[in-house]
Specification:
Gyrase A, domain 2, 19% strand, binds zinc ion, 159 residues, single chain, 4-stranded antiparallel sheet, globular, alpha+beta
Length: 159
């Protein structure tokens, strides 16, 4: 099997919440795509339950798209400790961490149920499994820790 960078990372050495650049892939015509690790909770200590994670996923799809030029996709890790973010080009981890911080603040402070996209049987693959309450509580806890732009040393971003 091909080697996967994410499985080479020593998950006991990182200090979540953080943003980490995993790779920059370059296409045949020179276009670049960056892949980030958005780690919201500490691996093997914590995991966001599926309802809250699912609602955060639907919200980040819009909130991060509005804040990051070249946004492609943001998808949850199976371990439920964070997300992969794919972006055209090569923004800094600081820019991404600030965009993530703002997005989680929106979820914590302003988002209401009517603002959550894709919560119907037609628009989601598991529409019963959403929790805005959980999404807000986890966002609050993650923000209380602060989001670092370095995975190994706490370097929390401000505005
Ligand atoms: Zn869904």
């Amino acid at each position: 099997m091909g080697k996967v960078e994410s499985f080479e990372l020593d998950h006991t050495k990182v200090k979540a919440p953080y943003v980490r650049l995993i790779t920059v892939e370059e296409g045949a015509k020179g276009d670049k795509i960056s892949n980030f690790d958005l780690r919201l909770v500490q691996p093997n200590k914590n995991a966001i339950p599926t309802g809250g994670l699912h609602t955060i996923e639907h919200l980040l799809a819009g909130l991060l798209r509005d804040r990051i030029d070249g946004y492609i996709d943001c998808s949850p890790f199976g371990c439920r400790t964070g997300f992969h973010l794919l972006v055209w080009g090569n923004p800094s981890t600081t820019e991404v961490a600030k965009a993530l911080k703002e997005s989680l603040e929106e979820i914590r402070d302003n988002i209401q149920w009517k603002d959550v996209p894709g919560t119907t049987i037609e628009s989601c693959g598991n529409y019963r499994d959403h929790s805005l309450f959980s999404a807000k509580q986890w966002s609050r806890d993650i923000l209380a820790e602060g989001i670092s732009d370095d995975p190994f040393e706490r370097h929390v971003v401000e505005y």
